[in-house]
Description:
Elements: H1 6-20, E1 44-48, H2 52-55, H3 66-72, E2 76-81, H4 85-93, E3 103-105, H5 109-112, E4 119-122, H6 129-138, E5 142-145, H7 153-165, E6 171-173, H8 181-192, E7 199-205, H9 226-230, H10 257-260, H11 262-272, E8 284-286, E9 290-291, E10 296-297, E11 300-301, E12 312-318, E13 324-328, E14 334-339, E15 343-346, E16 351-352, H12 354-357, H13 367-373, H14 382-392, H15 400-419, E17 422-426, E18 431-433, H16 436-439
Parallel strand pairs: 1-2, 1-4, 2-3, 4-5, 5-6, 7-13
Antiparallel strand pairs: 7-14, 8-12, 8-17, 9-12, 10-11, 12-13, 14-15, 15-16, 17-18
Amino acid sequence: MKKPSANRRDFLKTSALxxxxxxxxxxxxxxxxxxxxxxxSRPRIGCIGxxxxxxxxxSDNPNRAGDAGGHANFGDILAVCDADSDRVDRxxxxxxxxxxKADGYKDYRKILERDDIDVVSVVTTDHWHVxxxxxxxxxxxxxxxxxxxxxxxxxxxxxxxxxxxxxDQAFLVGTQQRSTKDKFLRAVxxxxxxxxxxxxxxTVGINGSPTGGPFPVEPVPENLDWDLWLGQAPKVExxxxxxxxxxxxxxxxxxxxxxxxxxxxVDIAMWALNKNGEGQGPVEIDGTDVKHPVExxxxxxxxxxxxxxxxxxxVINTFDDGIVMxxxxxxxxxxxxxxxxxxxxxxxGKIVGKPIEENWDKxxxxxxxxxxLYKGKPAEGHKNNFYRCIAEGGLTVSxxxxxxxxxxxxxxxxxxGRLGRKIKWDPxxxxxxxxxxxxxFIARERREGFDIPRV
Length: 455
């Protein structure tokens, strides 16, 4: 694979910083980050995965442009890719994405081989994320990858190692709640400053997966490369409800709500608790209160024609200091922090509780605190931060290293729930203790030809 030249990468940085020279201390990234008259001074972008999140769902609104449309605010989209040719055609001809000029591919490697592409957006099904992201890093690209970043605990290590090796390339995970300053960042700041006292319990409400099935076997649509879509996952017959958006409700390709909403809310909870560093995490995960919509044996569904991720659960994650995090389908979607002084609840629609009503964080949630949460950079939109980091260097607000710690808790919750028991976890060695069967879920066997690079 060809890599963008060092000169090209340096040029992007110097162009952006030159455009910023008149603005102190930060320039306004709400405008295109590399906006000047010469096209060569803007990032050149390839979008891999242009479905409902990647390019918007036309059934909802034909003008929606998804993540690809967001990237188009900062650079030029030269190529789009998807295993579904209908999605490729739509993205190519979308007025905000391909504009009728972008190249379209089925094979994502065609994008990675191009030395004129600087940035790759990975918005595929979950089980493809890490393989494509690592190969993009190897090809010298900056990477935006949608959540949940990983499918397994093993993949956490693989992507973390790759990001350490290719540390000069920006990588942002699409957990946009990290950029919601009036709700989630306010909650994180309040917890980290100790304004709620000592936190004793966090309840992470992520709803349950939908139930459905049995679903019939159907002919593979002419526009879909089903074998490519399956990738590393086992070869199975095509059922429409396994594919596209609904892949989320099958453990073969995702983790149900554990990794869907869990990637958002568990991430915020562990960030607030300062438990998202390498070597941190829960030490016991209790999956005894978990139900599945189909019969299970030894942690695997006994049927292959129905959604199989959990629809009803309360998984208790306990940390070594005694703090309890209940990852549950019950109650409201959102996060409740309970401390010795007070409690708050936050979700995408509101942040409530006596500490909020009485403004306990008055004069303690300003620019300094926001820049601290943003690793020294200004609080701004998610993709704004990504393109700033391309220009200036540094870790993005939603970095791989903290994200995989939250994903560990999500994956462990799913494993404990699938087996219906408690498991012990050593967050320093990243091993399940004393349970050979549970340990077998740390990694998955991949189909030949779809292995993930180890760097």
